[in-house]
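note to self: dont lose this again. the chain is below, predicted strucutre after it. 273 aa total, dont forget to put it in the shared folder this time
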Amino acid sequence: MERNERGEMPFLDHLEELRWRIFKAAGALIVCTLIGAWLIIRFDALTLLVEPVVPFLPEGQTRLNYLNPVTPFFFIIKTSVLVGLVGALPIIVYQIWAFLSPALEKREKRLIVPALYGGFVLFAIGVWLAYTIALPVSLQFLLGIQTDVLQPMLTADEYLSFVFRLLLAFGLIFELPVVILILSVLGLVTPAFLRSKRRHAIVIITILASLLSPGDVLAVTVIMMGPLVLLYELSIWISVFVYRWKRDDEEPTILAPEPPKASVSLGDDEESR
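---
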């Protein structure tokens, strides 16, 4: 793609580049999905997802039920796509970054690039927290309701869909600091704005925690709210750091003042003498 002296391209060239970026991202997703299917079948990864619910199944039962003959096949497909999406995420993010980065300044890239790598780590932490804490607590509460009159019959499709939604929700929510950092670099949010909206954020966090941990038990909601509140407070400090960095980076370098012209001319006269 040809660019002018300012690094700009014609509109049609932008569309051509976008088309190739989409093709590369889609190709990476397909390849990673095929690799994900092989890993799931080879290492029996579904057992890891079913393990948290085994203690709540009827005594002696270690497998989930399914009602449709095609459920096992389509579930492998769904799981493979999910694993492929996670595996291809670095390539997809890179393609998006490569398309948008020419519009950013060099000093903005110095913060955004590390933030994108940090986003993968935060996503993994969110998934781990959901699997180790949120999922067992939610199952214990949900499957303990009305046990004297109701008998749960868990099916693989519904249970695993619930697990995927929970894991993805936590992984995406843990991207909040990265989103705030990028918005702060672009000047779309400020620390003052985030502080002024703290009460609104707590209300939204409470609603999200209630949705992620269904039920009316206060302890369950508090367990979910804790990380979200901490992430929001961390985002405020990240925004403060970004604006201080931008302010220091934009300050002009203080140069030594030039000597007065009179003194220069006087020195020249003395030398001539």
